[in-house]
């Protein structure tokens, strides 16, 4: 069984004796506003596409992404989720040793382990609000052929400036940097942070998941962009038709309407800023929990009095599924992550957390 990707809905439903649909899943990071409005109707109207093979390399879908970002389509590859690239890059680039800026998404390490690539972590610390020390990262990058950086980072929310990243990448020309921008579209002014157009940089690839911002994780779509020399190496490991026909069509449709994309991002970003503020405010005076700053809609918290499994159990009684972060290297069973949803649900979760933490004193 594959684990480590958020909470287990079925387990919670079984424990508290309710239906799967009654669980409020705040453990996985998806756009709280849902997908762009027309996606459901588009899928219904285009279901016949599954009767034929799609483009083997999803070139049309890649072109949509490339055109939107103003980059050469030859510098973009489409995959069935960025997961495809995370699990292909270490092999395709012949890496022996990878460095991971952590605590971070566990699949970077899992992919390397599966491919016999050694990993080490450059860990950011709670006492520094998980702000990365780029000098330390630079020193440790010295011995690595691959460096994974998630920007903004899952689960800490730490965001690194574009210029700082460019300097770091420029300093280590023999090391390939994988910058995972899967959550960047949620950040206000994301465009000022993105490296997606830096395809002239020979030692950089950028990952852009479509799953999170467009809330279509079940379709499995994502992109890798980078220099053509790197694209060629990854392409050598590509399996034909790995992005299915409906997924290709949906993403093409999104990029066929480029004028709708930024307004959709902006609507999401404004919603997140407002709702994150309300959630943080609701827990501001609560003892026993510290929320870390984040520019996105998932919030990392440290618990002072009870463990993460215990808080998960208590809010689970109220049907909330939250993320126990014990399995993130560099965190412990004192950390949890909340992925925010609608106003009412976020405030109900805050109330459930308060009650759960207050119970310790009774
Ligand atoms: C940081 C990060 N990158 C990549 C992924 C993989 O997403 P996908 O394969 O759906 O693009 C995830 C999924 O949770 C993630 O958190």
Automatic annotation (TrEMBL):
GO terms for molecular function: pyridoxal phosphate binding; transaminase activity. It comes from the Bacteria. InterPro entries: Aminotransferase_I/II_large (IPR004839), PyrdxlP-dep_Trfase (IPR015424), PyrdxlP-dep_Trfase_major (IPR015421), PyrdxlP-dep_Trfase_small (IPR015422). The keyword DNA-binding does not apply. CDD domains: AAT_like. Residues 22-346 form the Aminotransferase class I/classII large domain. Its cofactor is pyridoxal 5'-phosphate. Keywords: Aminotransferase, Pyridoxal phosphate, Transferase. This is PLP-dependent enzyme, histidinol-phosphate/aromatic aminotransferase or cobyric acid decarboxylase.
């Amino acid at each position: 069984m594959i684990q480590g990707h958020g909470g287990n809905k079925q387990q919670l439903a079984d424990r508290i004796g309710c239906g799967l649909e009654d669980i409020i899943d705040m453990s996985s990071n998806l756009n709280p506003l849902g997908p762009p409005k027309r996606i459901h109707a588009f899928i219904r109207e285009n279901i016949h596409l599954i009767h034929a093979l799609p483009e083997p390399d999803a070139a049309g879908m890649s072109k949509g992404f490339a055109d939107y970002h103003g980059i050469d389509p030859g510098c973009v590859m489409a995959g069935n989720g960025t997961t495809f690239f995370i699990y292909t890059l270490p092999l395709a680039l012949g890496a022996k040793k990878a460095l991971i800026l952590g605590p971070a998404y566990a699949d970077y390490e899992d992919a390397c382990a599966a491919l016999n690539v050694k990993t080490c972590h450059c860990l950011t610390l709670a006492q520094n609000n998980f702000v990365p020390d780029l000098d330390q990262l630079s020193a440790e990058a010295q011995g690595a052929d691959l460096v994974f950086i998630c920007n903004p980072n899952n689960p800490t929310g730490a965001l690194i400036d574009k210029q700082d990243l460019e300097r770091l990448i420029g300093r280590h020309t023999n090391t390939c940097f994988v910058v995972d921008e899967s959550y960047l579209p949620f950040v206000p002014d994301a465009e000022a942070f993105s490296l997606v157009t830096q395809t002239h940089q020979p030692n950089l690839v950028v990952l852009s998941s479509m799953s999170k911002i467009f809330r279509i994780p079940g379709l499995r779509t994502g992109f890798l962009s980078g220099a053509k020399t790197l694209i060629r190496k990854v392409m050598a490991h590509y399996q034909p038709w790995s992005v299915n026909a409906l997924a290709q069509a949906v993403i093409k449709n999104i990029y066929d309407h480029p004028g709708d994309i930024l307004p959709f991002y902006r609507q999401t970003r404004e919603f997140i800023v407002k709702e994150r503020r309300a959630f943080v405010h609701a827990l501001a005076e609560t003892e026993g929990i510290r929320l870390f700053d984040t520019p996105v809609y998932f919030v990392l918290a440290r618990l002072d009095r009870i463990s993460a499994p215990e808080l998960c159990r208590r809010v689970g009684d109220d049907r909330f599924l939250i993320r126990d972060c014990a399995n993130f290297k560099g965190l412990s069973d004192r950390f949890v992550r909340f992925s925010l949803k609608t106003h009412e649900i976020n405030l109900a979760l805050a109330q459930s957390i308060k009650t759960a933490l207050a119970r310790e004193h009774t």
